[in-house]
């Protein structure tokens, strides 16, 4: 076959390949520069008790813990909530919460109504800790190890599938290490 | 009718004023820096808006953050570094040139070059195949023989 028939065919195939890859990427998932970096420090009042505090060292007291960003106004948080409850009930991994830009009474009522999977939740009314952690869409879930390094970040609701495929292997590895 | 119109126009005036003077600065220079920075930083929630135009909660928070940092005496570079440390190069509408963003910067020029070369090649080939080349001596003789044979009639 002549070059002038083959060339457009090659260009066409290249475009198809480009679109096939490009359209499967999720533009909302912006890679976080915080992955494999030290988790930002924070010191927040707890949602359930304003006088009690939650800090970064609460997270690093465990071999691995989840830091889940949630809010009572967040619809997708309702979606992932039953699964977080399941993880907490089975004692799979300690979960801490960051209550992001919420009202205290709404947050407390939400936990009362849907259950509280968190060891503790920090009350980040102004979203300042959220900025330090690069939060831009709730819910988000960080995997933090005992050294305080962010090992993984999931954006969007945590589903059993995401857990199995992405978070669980990292959590299991960290739980197994140095036991 | 006229008073009503006046009231409506006045409401617009208030809204416009509110949007501009949401933050107070010590100097006009600080305000100019604020406007420039908030226009160059991208809102991650809405993605195709900058922080200045977006009314998403995060954009409001980041505007507040820029405002505070300017008043605290931080330089533009420090503020941009603060944002990229947390949100990555994605927040910059003008990403820095580095290995990961090289394609973004040189890609259009490479495409232009490839397109230009291809165009030149096609044009050259077309000219080469269609242009009139003078007949060789043998061809000229044959042509004359054919013309003679047919008695000069075409």
Write up what this structure looks like.
The complex is a heterodimer of chains A (179) and B (154). Chain A has 179 residues and is an alpha/beta fold. Helices cover 41% and strands 20% of the residues of chain A. Chain A is elongated and about 80 Å long. The termini of chain A are far apart. The relative contact order of chain B is 0.06. Chains A and B meet through helix 5 of A and helix 3 and helix 4 of B.
Strand runs of chain A, count: 7
The H/E string of chain B reads HHHHHH
SS strand fraction of chain B: under 5%
Radius of gyration of chain B: 33 Å
Sheet bearing the most strands of chain B, described?
Answer: none
How many beta-strand runs of chain B?
Answer: 0
Q: Which percent range describes the beta-strand content of chain A? A: 15-25%
Mean pLDDT of chain B: 84
Cα-to-Cα separation, first versus last residue of chain A: 65 Å
Main sheet specs of chain A: 5 strands, mixed
Gross morphology of chain B is: elongated
Mean pLDDT of chain A: 92
Could you say how many structural domains of chain A there are in total? 1
Low-confidence stretches of chain A: none
CATH C-level name of chain A: Alpha Beta
Task: Describe the structure concisely.
The complex is a heterodimer of chains A (179) and B (154). Chain A is an alpha/beta fold.
SSE diagram, text form:
The complex is a heterodimer of chains A (179) and B (154).
Chain A: H1 3-22, E1 43-45, E2 53-55, H2 56-60, E3 64-70, H3 75-89, E4 95-100, H4 104-114, E5 120-124, H5 128-132, E6 140-145, E7 150-155, H6 160-176
Parallel strand pairs in A: 3-4, 4-5
Antiparallel strand pairs in A: 1-2, 3-6, 6-7
Chain B: H1 2-20, H2 28-40, H3 57-71, H4 76-87, H5 102-130, H6 137-149
Helix pairs in contact in B: 2-3
List keywords for this structure.
heterodimer; A: 179 residues; alpha/beta; Glutaredoxin; five-stranded mixed beta sheet; two-stranded antiparallel sheet; 6 helices; 41% helix; 20% strand; B: 154 residues; mainly alpha; Helicase, Ruva Protein, domain 3; 2 domains; 0% strand; elongated
